[in-house]
Task: inverse folding
């Protein structure tokens, strides 16, 4: 069965609650004080089934002092019934409630002229004209305007039929993924404990599952779920639900919190928005303190304007809101702003980015960023790409697509696949990186290598880690690896422990090249008894500086090994290591300097550096004057 949430709206005493009761048989005024004073103070709820459609009514108070309670009810509405009493016509809260519904983009609705029994047809025609003037050009332009009387039942049948018809055109909410339930009521039920209610905006809510209360971060368990007064094993988006929770007291939770799961929403104090200032409002200056109403939550915050000192009435603008407590948002959420004092609705708007980077706002770049976000707000793919692009090489975690990007859960993977397929983004591990960012960093990598080769002609290349620190400090390692992988695949670089430009060869002079060859040859023949470096230099006829420089180069290539002051041919040392290890198998446990000298026919000058080498390589360990073979 289709579920539709129908809200009331309108001035105090215009017969909203009476009409809900006439339609459902339930008096939505449940508080003792409401009954005593004959007015609605807080939200009331009732339900009925009409022509196969489950209608849930949210009845709001008309009193100007309770607009904040009214606001907590509008967020979940699919349809609104704007009430205008036949004997009073359009009044201040008729206008204010209508503006609120318009600014929050309640998708559809109708107008009811109530108390028709108190007016004749010419009075009703006047009311009709005033209503039409009010709603011209809005979402209610052309909507049904029905005269009804809760007292004598006139027009009720037509109203029911109109609601059932409108219900057919209501948007479907996505039932995939975790639930998002802004809480509008909390109470305790004898024998059950804490119950919270609300309109399930997206996802599914199941009995026995663990959920998160935001912003408190408290974990709770769903003990039971009720929809329209009946127990269910699960509820789905668009339904009004009552959830019995274990793990918390009534005092631990209040209206304005949201029941959800991780990665479904952003919990945030700074929000980038576009807003529309009402004609009736005063100019809104940078820095003004305002009341922010979103979902069932009300917060105080300050307006920051990226451009200009103020917003003029009747115009739209971009703004950043700095809130005094966390809001629970995703991109695309609608909200209302009210003046701090005197209380009045002044503006409404859309969340463009619930987690904006904290960079300069009143700068050219800040303004450009808003222009881009505002421009793309309608299209999820463009908005997500704007966020991906802005995240730079760090990438946008795919997990944030729902909670920050406002992408429906079931559309997330498809959107990622599309952006990757289009070549706009690359998926690297758990993040999306803009393809343009990846290609833009290639030039700096190649330039850094070129500079490095020029400054260090004898080095094989630039250490992998040094490039990462210099150019990829904010990026996950996987992103850096991906850039290298692409450059290697294109044969632009060779990447081992060091990264080298393709075609780069260590540049040696003829003398250096000859010295290298001679050093290797001499040391190979000398095996475990090489000459010291100055003797080596003399023997091959070059300066000691050249020998030292070539020693570093050959050392880096693992052709020579330096131990103590001496250079050895690496294969000679490898053989030595293997032999000593083999000795152990023949039962020899220890080795002293004398035995080592004798065994290899070397003097102390060679024996000491060689034994130190073996210690370093953990082939032996020094114990007193002797060595234990490990
Ligand atoms: N004659 C007549 N009186 C009505 C009708 N509907 C409501 N009333 C009376 O109007 C008064 C206000 O009705 P409510 O339904 O409480 O008005 P409301 O819009 O819910 O008021 P708030 O919730 O306080 O904003 C009550 O005394 C009702 O009995 C109607 O159709 N005809
Ligand atoms: Mg009422």
Result:
């Amino acid at each position: 069965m289709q579920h539709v949430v129908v809200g009331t709206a309108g001035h105090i005493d215009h017969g909203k609650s009476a009409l809900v009761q006439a339609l459902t048989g339930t008096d939505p005024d449940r508080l003792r004080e409401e009954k005593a004073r004959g007015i609605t103070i807080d939200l009331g709820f009732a339900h009925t089934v009409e022509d196969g459609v489950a209608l849930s009514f949210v009845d709001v108070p008309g009193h100007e002092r309770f607009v904040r309670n009214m606001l907590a009810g509008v967020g979940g509405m699919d349809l609104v019934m704007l009430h205008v009493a036949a004997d009073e016509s359009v009044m201040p809260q008729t206008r204010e409630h209508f503006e609120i519904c318009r600014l929050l983009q309640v998708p559809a609705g109708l107008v009811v002229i109530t108390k028709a029994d108190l007016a004749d047809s010419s009075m009703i025609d006047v009311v009709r004209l005033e209503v039409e003037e009010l709603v011209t050009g809005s979402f209610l332009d052309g909507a049904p305007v029905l005269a009804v009387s809760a007292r004598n039942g006139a027009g009720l049948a037509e109203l029911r039929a109109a609601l059932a018809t409108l219900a057919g055109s209501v948007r479907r909410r996505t039932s995939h993924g975790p639930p998002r339930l802004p809480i509008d009521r909390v109470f305790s039920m004898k024998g059950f404990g804490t119950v919270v209610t609300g309109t399930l905006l997206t996802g599914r809510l199941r009995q026995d599952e663990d959920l998160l209360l935001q912003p408190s971060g408290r974990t709770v368990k769903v003990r039971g779920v009720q929809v329209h007064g009946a127990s269910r094993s699960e509820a789905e988006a668009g339904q009004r639900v009552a959830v019995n929770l274990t793990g918390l007291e009534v005092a631990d939770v209040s209206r304005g919190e949201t029941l959800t799961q991780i990665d479904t929403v952003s919990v945030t104090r700074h929000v980038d928005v576009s807003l529309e200032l009402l004609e009736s409002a005063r100019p809104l200056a940078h820095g003004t303190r305002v009341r922010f109403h979103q979902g069932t939550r009300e917060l105080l915050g300050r307006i920051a304007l990226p451009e200009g000192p103020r917003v003029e009435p009747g115009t739209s603008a971009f703004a950043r809101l700095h809130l005094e407590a966390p809001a629970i948002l995703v991109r695309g959420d609608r909200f209302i702003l009210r003046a701090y004092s005197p209380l009045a609705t002044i503006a409404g708007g859309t969340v463009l980015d619930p987690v904006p980077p904290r960079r300069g706002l009143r700068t050219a770049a800040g303004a450009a960023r808003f222009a881009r976000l505002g421009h793309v707000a309608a299209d999820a793919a463009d908005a997500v790409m704007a966020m991906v692009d802005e995240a730079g090489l760090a990438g946008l975690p795919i997990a944030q697509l729902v909670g920050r990007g406002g992408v429906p859960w079931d559309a997330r993977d498809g959107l990622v696949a599309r952006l990757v397929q289009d070549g706009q983004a690359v998926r690297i591990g758990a993040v999306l990186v803009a393809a343009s960012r990846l290609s833009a960093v290639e030039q700096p990598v190649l330039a850094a290598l070129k500079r490095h080769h020029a400054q260090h002609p004898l080095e094989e290349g630039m250490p992998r880690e040094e490039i990462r620190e210099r150019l990829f400090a904010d990026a996950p390692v996987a992103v850096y690896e991906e850039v290298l992988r692409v450059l290697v695949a294109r044969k632009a670089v060779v990447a081992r422990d060091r990264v080298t430009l393709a075609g780069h060869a260590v540049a040696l002079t003829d003398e250096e090249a000859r010295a290298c060859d001679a050093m290797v040859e001499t040391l190979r023949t000398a095996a475990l008894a090489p000459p010291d470096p100055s003797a080596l230099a003399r023997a091959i006829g070059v300066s000691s500086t050249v020998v030292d420089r070539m020693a570093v180069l050959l050392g880096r290539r693992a052709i020579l090994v330096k131990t103590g002051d001496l250079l050895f041919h690496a294969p000679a040392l490898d053989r030595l290591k293997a032999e000593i290890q083999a000795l152990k198998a023949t039962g020899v446990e220890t080795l002293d300097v004398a035995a080592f000298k004798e065994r290899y026919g070397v003097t102390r000058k060679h024996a000491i550096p060689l034994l130190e080498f073996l210690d370093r390589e953990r082939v032996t360990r020094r114990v007193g004057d002797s060595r234990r073979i490990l």
Q: What stands out?
A: The radius of gyration is 38 Å. The first helix runs from residue 16 to 24. The CA atoms of residues 537 and 544 lie 5 Å apart. DSSP finds 20 helices and 35 strands in the chain.
